[in-house]
Amino acid sequence: PVTDGSRELHSLCAQLEFLLQFDLKEKRSFFGQRKDYWDFLCQGLTRCRQEHEGIHFVTSLDKLKTPVGRGRAFLRYCLVHRQLAESLQLCLLDPESLCEWYYARSPFLSPKRRAEILGSLYELDCVTFHLAL
């Protein structure tokens, strides 16, 4: 199993975060806080489902104060529970929402690249992750 000490885990999470932040439009909350991929994921999953367990778990963690911290915790939760590909796929279903959150260079706006990314993420479902959440 992959654990917190794994170099590959850190590289994987960095690449995932890079993909989710690449060409992300700058948005701000009502109070001026910069929105990040965490906000995109929340909006996408809320639109598709009543409640995602990962979002509920992450929002219950009082120590997490920033959208980036919440996003990282959500990625780890999804890896442990083998939900990353499915969760991201649900967020990528709505082309209007994608255009609202991402500029044209984002790989998520290319059907071919999106399929490649999701295919790779579904392969991660075979990997066991034992991470501290």
Structure description:
With 133 residues, this protein is mainly α. Helix content is 57%, strand content 3%. The chain is built from 7 helices and 2 strands, in the order βαααααααβ. It has a two-stranded parallel sheet with strand order 1-2. Helix 2 packs across helix 4 (67-80), helix 2 (37-48) packs across helix 5 and helix 3 packs across helix 4. The radius of gyration is 14 Å and the shape is globular. One of its GO terms (cellular component) is lysosome. Keywords: Autophagy, Coiled coil, Cytoplasmic vesicle, Lysosome, Metal-binding, Zinc, Zinc-finger. It comes from Chaetops frenatus (Rufous rock-jumper).
Short structural description:
The chain has 133 residues and is mainly alpha-helical.
Give unreliable regions as ranges: none
Shape annotation: globular
Task: Give the helix tally.
Answer: 7
The portion of residues forming beta strands comes to under 5%
The percent of residues in helical segments reads 55-70%
Mean pLDDT: 93
What is the CATH superfamily classification? RUN domain
Largest beta-sheet details: 2 strands, parallel
What structural category arises from helix and sheet content?
mainly alpha
CATH topology-level name: Methane Monooxygenase Hydroxylase, Chain G, domain 1
Distance separating the two termini: 15 Å
Rg, alpha carbons: 14 Å
Please write the CATH class name. Mainly Alpha
Number of domains: 1
What oligomeric state is this?
Answer: single chain
What is the spatial order of strands in the main beta sheet? Answer: 1-2
**Element-by-element helix/strand order:** EHHHHHHHE
Report the count of strand segments.
Answer: 2
Reported CATH architecture: Up-down Bundle
Main location: cytoplasm
Pfam families: RUN
Domain RUN: 3-133
Protein name: RUN and FYVE domain-containing protein 4
